[in-house]
């Protein structure tokens, strides 16, 4: 059979593709390019008066209050620096509850009365902007006729220049709030939660006798998984183009079962794309460190170096924007959906996090002998308490229609939030529970039996890829975050629940010492109490096993399999009290998060349901009917010639066509009945009725793909999209 002309044309386009060498620049290989498009502290040190620079630096490095009097000086220096690099426009960049990046561009040009213009950028413009607050998701905080909202300069996240072949833009990271001050974005609560966590961590450090306590911050290093699919294929797949995932597609003869893609040689076209993205990211100060093939064919990963959480969240958004833009230049589409292809691994965004400051270092560094490192054990115990008490909030922070297709499969941690400590820490905490830790399992030496090879260091414990929250040496890794999601959402939760846990521990230590208990004894008491009350969250085994799911329920851990199951976690009294106490969300803001998440879930599934019906009716069914006609004509021709015809293929195909028609009608009925309910009940209906109806259509369509003649099948197949580069 000859392949369908549309698909064949797409394949020929791909075969003719070459890396766009015009985007390669030998001078860009120099280490000096890192951060060259960032209005960083070193740049400010050269361009700002010393007193102004010291004020800005204190705000950035120590979290000191921003002096509004310096805004005009900083704005003028920022404008001059940007215009020297060819910039004509600036943009306040913010992160609304769409989960995407938003920006409003304005020119430096200001007309004057004599018909001429000057180039100006005033401090008041740097500090505050005004986009429309009612046109973004807001959960009812703003009505349509209440349009006013404000962006506010976040001095802790540096301005940067975003290059474009037709001109560059000065981008200023900002918060986004309503006219009455409610957070309409992810950055504002992230900064609030950071402040709350820092205050409580400082109390713990003070209890340990530290005097020189710097501002405490959380750090984040998000690993990003993604797929690259040729633009020619994506443009021929309405589901990929609109929904970001394939709603149809038969399993290819070969998938990922050979494990031959993981860490394999990077294809030449993909490597060219990676080189270009890394150059762009380096200029923007994004510390991209690691790149490799991921498990599924067509899937890849990039991992940055740790940064302060606020900056890491901004850079993560910038990375996705950069990838999408540069992928187009290379003839690719970068897919960040959590499950773009059924039957192979989906994509996550592993959020590695830790806490620390300039003087005391990383609080989650256990050292060589964790049993002797009381400060580390206290911060680690705080994580255990936080995860046990607020696992539901961690779960809802990564809830989405896309991530529902990934969580719980043999590729991602289950929707039960537990902690993996590893053998070494597990042993230490077990000793504490029994009265006190006196030893730590040590690293070993690993010989592989070849004299010419070095002796390898063997860690004191293994890693666990099935755990949602795994300790990995000097940090925890929250592995359940979805590829398309902002890391700010889980970081807000992590900071806030850590604030509560550290508050509890600090209060316990202060009270014990005040009552005359020796400090080390007080530490032992509080650690033992945390393990006794919250150790149920610690699980070192196989998180994918059925046995663990059953055991988790007996331990009292929440099993929230889907977005619909987890969304009510926003509305519990415990959540409202937590966020109110630490000033992260007021009740209206928390309710808004719930409403927006619910709305986005419903919209995502509605789009997919409409696409499923459209593609099934207008593309798949016509292909099947054309083939059915071919087979019927063949049977009729043979019988007219007096030859007994084998009708088995025609009958089997006709049965599948009938099943597809029935499935389409069932989906239409399911969608029609959706709006008989509203709110969480509507979401439950969508989960229990619409999604299964979509699956019935898909199963029939995928079965047809396996039997319909190749030259009649219009949609690019998994085999083509995953393997042709």
TrEMBL record:
- Taxonomic superkingdom: Bacteria
**What molecular function terms (GO) are annotated for this protein?**
glutamine synthetase activity
State the SMART domains in the record.
Gln-synt_C
Any Gene Ontology biological process? glutamine biosynthetic process
What's the protein here called?
Glutamine synthetase type III
By its UniProt entry, which PROSITE patterns does this protein fall under? GLNA_ATP, GS_BETA_GRASP, GS_CATALYTIC
What protein family does this chain belong to?
Belongs to the glutamine synthetase family.
Q: Where is the GS catalytic domain?
A: 197-620
Instruction: Domain (GS beta-grasp): give its ranges.
Output: 88-181
Pfam assignment, any one: GSIII_N
Could you tell me which InterPro entries the record lists for this protein?
Answer: Gln-synt_C (IPR040577), Gln_synt_N (IPR008147), Gln_synth/guanido_kin_cat_dom (IPR014746), Gln_synth_cat_dom (IPR008146), Gln_synth_gly_rich_site (IPR027303), GS_Type-3 (IPR052725), GSIII_N (IPR022147)
């Amino acid at each position: 059979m000859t392949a369908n002309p549309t698909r064949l044309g797409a394949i020929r386009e791909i075969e003719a593709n070459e890396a766009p060498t015009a985007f390669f620049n030998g001078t860009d290989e120099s280490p000096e390019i890192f951060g060259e498009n960032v209005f960083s502290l070193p740049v400010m040190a050269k361009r700002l008066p010393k007193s102004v620079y010291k004020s800005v630096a204190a705000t950035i490095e120590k979290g000191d209050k921003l002096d509004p009097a310096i805004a005009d000086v900083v704005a003028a220096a920022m404008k001059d620096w940007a215009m020297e690099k060819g910039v004509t426009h600036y943009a306040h960049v913010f992160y609304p509850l769409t989960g995407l990046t938003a920006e409003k561009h304005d020119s430096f040009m200001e007309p004057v009365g004599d018909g001429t213009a000057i180039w100006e950028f005033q401090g008041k413009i740097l500090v505050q902007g005004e986009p429309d607050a009612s046109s973004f998701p807001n959960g009812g905080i703003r009505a349509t006729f209440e349009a006013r909202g404000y962006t506010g300069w976040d001095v802790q996240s540096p301005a940067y220049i975003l290059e474009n072949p037709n001109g560059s833009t000065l981008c200023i990271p900002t918060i986004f709030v309503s006219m009455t001050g409610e957070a309409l974005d992810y950055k504002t609560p992230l900064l609030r939660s950071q402040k709350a966590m820092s205050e409580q961590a400082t109390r713990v450090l003070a209890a340990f006798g530290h005097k020189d306590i710097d501002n405490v911050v959380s750090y984040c290093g998000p690993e990003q998984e993604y797929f690259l699919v040729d633009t020619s294929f994506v443009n021929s797949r309405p589901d990929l183009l609109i929904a970001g995932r394939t709603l149809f597609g038969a399993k290819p003869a070969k998938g990922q079962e050979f494990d031959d893609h993981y860490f394999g040689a990077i294809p030449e076209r993909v490597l060219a794309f990676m080189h270009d993205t890394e150059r762009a990211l380096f200029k923007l100060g994004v510390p991209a460190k690691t790149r490799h093939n991921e498990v599924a064919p067509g899937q890849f990963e990039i991992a940055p170096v740790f940064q302060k959480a606020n900056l890491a969240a901004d850079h993560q958004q910038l990375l996705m924007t950069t990838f999408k833009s540069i992928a187009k230049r290379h003839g690719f589409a970068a897919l960040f959906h959590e499950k773009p292809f059924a039957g192979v691994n989906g994509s996550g965004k592993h959020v590695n996090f830790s806490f620390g400051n300039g003087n005391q270092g990383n609080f989650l560094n256990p050292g060589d002998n964790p049993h002797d490192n009381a400060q580390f054990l206290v911060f680690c115990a705080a994580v255990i308490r936080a995860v046990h008490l607020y696992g539901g909030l961690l779960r809802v922070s990564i809830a989405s229609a896309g991530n529902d297709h990934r969580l719980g499969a043999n590729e991602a941690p289950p929707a039960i939030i537990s902690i993996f400590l590893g053998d070494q820490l597990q042993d230490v905490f077990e000793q504490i529970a029994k009265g006190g830790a006196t030893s730590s399992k040590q690293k070993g030496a690993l010989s592989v039996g070849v004299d010419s090879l070095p002796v390898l260091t063997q860690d004191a414990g293994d890693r666990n890829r099935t755990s949602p929250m795994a300790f990995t040496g000097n940090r925890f890794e929250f592995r359940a975050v979805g590829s398309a999601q902002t890391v700010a959402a889980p970081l807000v939760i992590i900071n806030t629940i850590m604030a509560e846990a550290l508050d509890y521990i600090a209060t316990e230590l202060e009270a014990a010492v005040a009552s005359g208990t020796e400090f080390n004894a007080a530490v032992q008491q509080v650690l033992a109490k945390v393990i006794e009350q919250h150790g149920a969250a610690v699980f070192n085994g196989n998180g994918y096993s059925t046995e663990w799911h059953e055991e988790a329920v007996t331990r009292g851990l929440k099993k929230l399999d889907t977005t619909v199951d987890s969304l009510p976690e926003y509305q519990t009294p415990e959540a409202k009290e937590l966020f109110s106490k630490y000033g992260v969300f007021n009740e209206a803001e928390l309710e808004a998060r719930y409403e927006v998440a619910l709305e986005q879930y419903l919209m995502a599934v509605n789009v997919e349901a409409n696409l499923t019906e459209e593609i099934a009716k207008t593309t798949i069914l016509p292909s099947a009917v054309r083939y059915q006609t071919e087979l019927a004509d063949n049977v009729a021709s043979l019988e007219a010639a007096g030859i007994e015809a084998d009708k088995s293929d025609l009958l089997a195909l006709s049965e599948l066509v009938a099943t597809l028609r029935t499935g389409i009608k069932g989906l239409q009925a399911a969608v029609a009945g959706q709006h008989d309910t509203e709110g969480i009940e509507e979401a439950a209906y969508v989960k229990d009725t619409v999604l299964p109806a979509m699956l019935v259509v898909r199963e029939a369509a995928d079965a047809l793909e396996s039997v319909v003649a190749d030259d009649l099948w219009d949609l690019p197949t998994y085999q083509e999209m995953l393997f042709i580069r």
